[in-house]
Specification:
Strand order of the largest sheet: 1-2-3-6-7
Strand content: 15-25%
Number of domains: 1
CATH architecture: 3-Layer(aba) Sandwich
Largest sheet: 5 strands, mixed
Distance between the termini: 50 Å
Number of strands: 7
Number of helices: 6
Shape: globular
CATH topology: Trna Endonuclease, Chain: A, domain 1
CATH class: Alpha Beta
Oligomer: single chain
């Protein structure tokens, strides 16, 4: 049977012996590779860093932000948190509080002072408490959520993926005679299926 993303998640749990810290780090690395490879995001982002690798981090340790992405066209920055939980876990507001605090701060780059334009939360659980849902609503910084189902539907070839050779990740071959749609002109909102993800985007100013 072909390997699926669920098998890769099980493999992470196995090789880390279900250690929360270790499996979190492995999941963050996997999600960074995913964002650099899946065309939806690879076409949008010029860079995706682990927090520890981001040249403009203001603390050496993780402050609640796991990944940073920068848009190709606008140069805007996204703050990303990866939540690797049991699917039955109900994500609580306190699970994302530190992320919201850190991603609301301004920071310095070589180009001057910046702030995050968008937040993204990648979660392996679909269950969110009412307070967690309310926390991301009507924020000045919009929040994009990616669910486990979005990973399953990605054009990434999970069947050939090797956790020990993450950089060898590849896309599934295109079907014969498939018609490739034109790439969208950025900046645009990422379109994630509404049944799986609630995306809140503010309009871009010229």
């Amino acid at each position: 049977m072909a390997k699926k993303i669920t098998d890769i998640i099980d493999e992470i749990i196995s090789i880390t012996k279900n250690n929360s810290s270790d499996k979190g780090v492995q999941f963050e690395r996997l999600m960074a590779i995913y964002l650099r490879t899946d065309p939806t995001y690879a076409d949008r982002f010029s860079d995706v860093w682990l927090w520890s690798e981001w040249p403009d981090k203001w603390y050496a340790i993780d402050v609640g932000i796991d990944l940073i992405a920068r848009e190709k066209v606008t140069g805007e920055y996204w703050a990303i948190q990866c939540k690797f939980y049991n699917p039955e876990h109900i994500l609580q507001k306190h699970d994302i509080d530190s992320f919201f605090t850190a991603s609301g701060k301004k920071f310095m780059t070589a180009e001057g002072e910046k702030n995050f334009s968008t937040r993204m939360i990648i979660s392996t659980t679909y269950k969110w408490s009412k307070n967690a849902e309310n926390a991301i609503a009507d924020q000045l910084i919009p929040t994009v959520r990616i669910w486990f189902n979005d990973l399953e539907k990605s054009p990434i070839d999970w069947s050939s993926f090797d956790l020990y050779k993450m950089d060898d990740i590849r896309l599934l071959p295109s079907p014969p005679n498939s018609v490739h749609p034109k790439k969208p002109v950025f900046p645009v909102a990422i379109r994630v299926p509404a049944t799986f993800c609630m995306s809140i985007f503010r309009s871009k100013r010229e």
